[in-house]
Design a protein that fits this description.
There is one protein chain. This protein is an alpha/beta fold. The strands form 2 sheets. Strands 6-7-8-3-9-10 form a 6-stranded mixed beta sheet, with helices on both faces. A 4-stranded antiparallel beta sheet has the order 2-1-4-5, with helices on one face. It has a domain at about 85-150. The chain is globular and about 45 Å long. The protein has 10 helices and 10 strands. The chain is about 35% helix and about 25% strand.
Length: about 230
Amino acid sequence: MLKVEHLQVAYGKVQTLWDISFEVPRGEIVALVGANGAGKTTTLKTLSALLKPKSGAIALDGESLAACSSIEIVERGIVHVPEGRGLFPEMTVLDNLLMGAYSTRKAGRSERLDKVYATFPILKEREKQVAGTLSGGEQQMAAIGRGLMAEPRLLMLDEPTLGLAPIVVEEMFRVVRDINASGVTVLLVEQNTQHALMLANRGYVLEAGRVVLSGTGSELLTNEEVRRAYLGL
């Protein structure tokens, strides 16, 4: 579905991604894992056209995304839920969710909203509440719900469990699994390496802007280097 080849990205004169290549097959969950500063968030920002690569190729279903703007990326079905959630804190939960649908067809929006509420029932209860007053877990639910309102074919999640209580972390991973089971391909960036690789069909380990390991989720979980560096085992 998504193919990234030899991607190189820099912030000014500081290069952060070096010859990154990976694939996200349709229908799968693919995890990008690694320590802080490994280049995971930069990768997602580049795929969303928020950053322009120095070189390399990004293709969706065989078609280059090189000339696409961020809006066009969303229109093609790639939706990015950013680290830090990026909600509009003074707007209601409902208005935040509807913002996710701004570039989509009007027909079916109410049905999509119903599906979001079915996935996150608490958001229905909180729909008139100002988003900035939600708990951290509820804000993450709202951010993912907003992403789902954009009808993603590929949903990119950047650190969806960051700063959440363990019980909420478990719920978030369950939700990601359910979203994928509904037919949405998922590219997951996550520092919780063990949970991410348990969930993922395949994974890529980033280190200092390079892919240093790749394999199925189960292969990486049993890899001694991964266990030592990222699982503390």
